[in-house]
Amino acid sequence: MSLTAVLSTNASLSAAHRIAAAELRDSDLPGPGDRVGLIAGWGRFPIVVAQALKARGCEVYCVGIFGHCDAELRNLCDDYVEMGPAKLGGHIRWFRNRGVSCATMAGKLFKTQIFKHRHWLFHLPDWETIRSFYPHFVLKSRDLKDDTILLTVIDTFARKQIRFEPAVRFAPELLVKYGCLTRKGLNDAQRRDVEFGWTVAKALGGHDIGQSVAVRHGTILAVEAVEGTDACIRRAGELCKMGGFSLVKTAKPQQDMRFDVPTVGLGTIETLRAAGGKALAVEADRTIFLDYEETIAFAERHGIAIVAVEEGEGSLSIPAAGSAKSAEEGDGSRESAA
Questions:
Q1: β-pair partners for 59
Q2: What percent of the chain has pLDDT over 70?
Q3: In this structure, are strands 219-223 and 212-216 parallel, antiparallel, or unpaired?
């Protein structure tokens, strides 16, 4: 294919994305007997999604990203294969050969791999990947932000009549609700840090940099970038030996719920505790919370406060202790941070 043809094809990516988004709004969720594709990265989230799909009676066909995914997926799914992240053509053919027209993605991809020396030789991209990412890596006309990369992936699948659904639509119970999730709430200093950290995290998200910031007494200790949340927490602990800092994790202002949804779980709280952190604030209804009961129990044992906050009109609503169900009980327990 000529360079002109490549550019013409990629110029239609944004249009393909709009079509996919329209289909997403109008489509019904797959049900019993329907075939659903799953692209699985690192962590427990892909396992939970596969279990939720099987509970709905769906047939699950999983492409596990090489070097990322859990071996348990092989036993959970109706069919399973591992491929590198730069084999988009292979992913698409594998799904289409199995009658998959609806897919979802779950789990973390380690973006740091693309900055390794001679990473393209390691990943050996296929032609579909080269064609899709030619503007990013060769022409440099498109950036390498997370949203840009993942939307390009979704648009590439859309050109082949495979649409993506948000994984949380199959397991909506994983989205944490507004409230103070632990018996211990935030003290006044932590509330001020969360309010400040929220504005910084949202600004970072607006630039597609990261989702998390660590704060202590109004000072930003660490911000999340390509390294991920756990590394951000560890860096905060290294810089704040006294501990007692708060971690604030939010969705991006422009969050596409089909990918890169903020996710926390037991591993997050274990890392926070090891680093000396004492509070975690996440965004209600836009954060995936894995292993909820086990995570809350661990936080309770170690005196870590966890809250799910939400932004109202001109202010941040931070729940008081004992308000874990306040989203359904009314506004009486909500306190404004304005």
A1: 35
A2: 83
A3: antiparallel
Q: 184-220 pLDDT, tens per residue?
A: 999 999 999 999 999 999 999 999 999 999 999 999 9
Per-residue burial over 142-163, b if 16 or more Cβ lie within 10 Å, else e, is beeebbebbbbbbbbbbbeebb
Nearest to 80 by CA among 125, 50, 48, 110: 50
| Conformation bin of residue 33: beta by default, left when phi > 0, alpha when psi is -120 to 50 | left
- pLDDT at position 74, please? 95
Residues 184 and 124 sit within 8 Å (Cβ to Cβ): no
Place of tokens 């000396």: 276
Sorted by sequence, the CB contacts under 8 Å of residue 177 that are 6+ apart come out as: 284, 285, 308, 324, 325, 327, 328
Which of 51, 111, 37, 60 is CA-nearest to residue 260? 111
What's residue 20's pLDDT? Answer: 39
pLDDT top residue among 109 and 149 = 149
**Please, which residues have CB within 8 angstroms of residue 250's CB and are 6 or more apart in sequence?**
198, 201, 202, 205, 211, 212, 262, 282, 283, 286
Q: For residue 331, which amino acid is it?
A: D
Tell me if residue 172 falls in helix, strand or coil. Answer: helix
Q: How far apart are CA 10 and CA 4, in angstroms?
A: 10
Angle, CA 158 vertex, CA 225 and CA 77 arms, to 5°: 75
Confidence band of 331 (pLDDT split at 50, 70, 90):
very low
Q: How much is the pLDDT for 314?
A: 77
Q: Is 256 helix (H, G, I), strand (E, B) or coil?
A: coil
CA 318 remoteness from chain centre: 22
Give the mean pLDDT of the chain.
Answer: 87
pTM: 0.84
Amino acid at 281: A
